[in-house]
Every structure is written in structure tokens, then in C-alpha cells.
Specification:
The chain has one domain. It has 5 helices and no strands. Helix 1 packs antiparallel against helix 2, helix 3 packs across helix 5 and helix 4 crosses helix 5. The radius of gyration is 15 Å and the shape is globular.
């Protein structure tokens, strides 16, 4: 996937915003799925909503299944180690920011773009949850 030097705005802003909003949900609604002590609810909801990212204008590819697999694997890599290494969100956010700044100059396959999108979703969840914990 290549964008000729143009940053694919819908592929970095929409996943981050989706994760950010789902990271706020445990503090805004009272539902058994969204517990304030766990991110399973926001991560599960974002994994389901990630299918909708395949129809964004910047995700034009004929290998949608490969991209979705990359998104889900990127979300797994970004989420599962946090059980053992509490500050895992810092490398995830730094990776996502670094990839966001360089993605317009690269020519990656859809799977690697999916890894980037998945880390963007989890970056949004982490940032949203930290902000909600401190402000709400």
C-alpha cells in the first residue's frame, strides 16, 4: 500500500479515535462488559469495530482479510504483554507515533499496515483510559 507522500489521515485518526472513545466507556457507562479495572471490554469492542476500518477510503486493497488479520494481531501484540509488563503501553504508543510519521513514505503490504492500525487502536484505548481515570 502506498500513498505517494500523502499521510493516510483516515488510517491513523479513525483507529486512534475509535480506541480513545472505547477507552473512555468504562468510566462513562455502567455495564458489566465495561469494568473500570479491565480493558477487556474496550479491546473486545474495538476488535469488532475494526472490521469497519476496511471500508475507509485510504484502505484500498484487494487483500482485506490480510489487513484485518494484521489489525487483530497488532491489537493482540499491543495488549497481551501488559499483563506481565505494566508499562507496555509506552512502547506501543511510541511505535504507533513513529510509524504514523513515516507511513506516507513507505510501501508496506496490507498486513503490516494492519499491525500499525492495531497498535493505533490500542494507543487510543490506553490514552483514553488514562485520561478518563484521571479526570472522570
Amino acid at each position: 500500500m502506498h500513498w505517494e507522500g500523502r499521510r493516510p489521515t483516515s488510517l491513523w485518526l479513525v483507529p486512534f479515535a475509535m480506541g480513545f472513545v472505547s477507552g473512555l466507556l468504562p468510566y462513562l457507562i455502567n455495564h458489566e462488559l465495561f469494568d473500570e479495572s479491565s480493558l477487556m471490554g474496550p479491546v473486545g469492542l474495538s476488535a469488532l469495530l475494526a472490521v469497519g476500518l476496511l471500508v475507509l477510503p485510504d484502505s484500498e486493497t484487494d487483500r482485506k482479510i490480510e489487513m484485518l488479520t494484521g489489525i487483530w494481531l497488532g491489537m493482540s501484540i499491543s495488549y497481551l504483554p501488559i499483563a506481565l509488563f505494566f508499562v507496555w503501553f509506552i512502547p506501543v504508543i511510541l511505535y504507533w507515533i513513529g510509524r504514523t510519521l513515516k507511513v506516507q513514505h513507505s510501501h508496506f503490504p496490507p498486513f503490516r499496515i494492519g499491525l500499525w492500525i492495531g497498535s493505533g487502536i490500542l494507543s487510543g484505548i490506553y490514552v483514553g483510559n488514562i485520561i478518563a481515570f484521571n479526570l472522570l
